[in-house]
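Help wanted!
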Amino acid sequence: MTRPVDGQLVAGVAKGIAQQLNLDPVVIRLAFVLLTVVNGIGIVAYAALWLFTPRRPYEGVPPQRDWSQIAAFTAIGMALMVFGWLTGASGGGIATWPIAVVGIGALILWQQADPDRRRRWMSGAVKGVRHNHIRSLIGMALVVIGASGFLYVQGEFAEMRPGLLFTAVVVGGLAVIAAPWLAGLWKELQLERRERIRQEERAEFAAHVHDSVLHTLTLIQRNAHDSREVQRLARSQERELRNWLYQPEQDADATLAAAVRRVAAEEEDAHGVPIEIVCVGDRELDSRFSAMVHAARQAMVNAAKYSESAVVSVYAEVEPEEVTIFVRDRGKGFDLNTVPDDRMGIRQSIIGRMERNGGSARIRTAPGEGTEVMLTMKVENS
Amino acid sequence: MSTRVLIVDDHRLFRSGVRAELGDGIEVVGEAEDVDTAVARIAELEPDVVLLDVHMPGGGGQEVLRRVLGSGSSVRFLALSVSDAAEDVIGVIRGGARGYVTKTISGRELTDAIKRVAEGDAVFSPRLAGFVLDAFASSEAPSIDPELDSLTQREREVLRLIARGYAYKEIAKELFISVKTVETHVSSVLRKLQLSNRHELSRWATARRLV
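Answered by r_m:
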């Protein structure tokens, strides 16, 4: 049996046993709490197991403890104790246990902290007490009153209630004294947690830059002689980085704008011609609009492959009653009448596809004037 | 007379690149690499146009705009950035820049844009035009000032053509109007963009963290 580091609450003893016995660690933890409450054997057993079980080797940053779970188990333990104490089920001596539990908890926190932080906690506590004279005085007074009251009623233990009352006063006094220190401790823990999150983010960022940007830079150096390839690499890396930095996770098959962006990105990669996209508005993608995106893709392919234009502009606008997509280049253009009937690209993939789906396509071009393909499709209001 | 330009950007390589690319009729009178230097140089050199990077240490382009325009200067700004995030674009335009272009722009186009800004006109990139159309279209809330809070049909047409990648000259030809009229429409859109107190404009830009 070993004590795992990931998933440990105190020292990983319960988790280790649970793994050994193929049980849920919660069961083991509850058993320890219960045994502790009944006669204190739980805590002794835990300590013994802690001492004698080797720690499981673990590499990397130790994961954050789940403090809410610790709090929950402590609360359960306390509640059981109070219950046992009030009902007299477990003798008078049990009253010392809450203090023991709190003490052990504090010791664990203490032990887990690094020496530097410990010093800060110490000075913080001392300063806190010194700076809060009034608070300290009230606390002290409460402790004194509570203690003397307790002693006073000691003789008449039959009357349980005042005794309890004064005990409460003692505890309250202690709480008042310890509050700033505990608050400081808590703040320190939160701070540490935030710092760790920040470090993780930084590590993720570094990993991303390494996998994508540095990799592309290497490729660019290797392809330095091929300016077209260099441009393609740079564009595609730029796009990826932008998406990663600014764009929320988007399902490219769910909305029209996302689909247009994805299609343009793919054609840009395939042909090495920059495709500038501007989208206004957005809507869900159904089969008709998918067909429209396909037609737009064909127009982009034509522009990238044949126009010799340096850049292709794509503009998609979604209006309440109509969707329009423009694909434009400033390339060499062509004479529409001379396109042979068997050229599938324009007639079938663009015009035919749009008409089959209830839309329309218009092509404006002339030799030397560039080409613009306009796709329109009415929105069916059902 | 040539247009006097100050280049503000924290990347030295980029500044020298722009300097080399700018065409005839543009005189680069100076460079600045951060907000404080930029504010000082603008006061000292009084350039016609400031080429302003959006992201810089010390508050970025918006801080320069705030400090310079806040002091009553009438120098004109053209924002130049790698970022196409709506927040940044709308942010610098509302901060007072007269145009926004991305750093991928060609030297010739940049030269044209600078001259246009120097003459007091506005410069919209296709993407900025798209943002404006989107921002003004997505309004369901009643507007406070109808004149400022909505675009005219003609302005919409002009913006749409800019978004489609048309140059001003091509837009003029397409709509059978003069280039001057196109410029007037764009300037009017810029004014609306800057003065409209529709708070959803800024909110829209923040909500839409799209490229």
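OP: Thanks! One thing I noticed: Strands of chain B lie at 3-8, 26-32, 49-53, 76-81, 99-102, 123-124.
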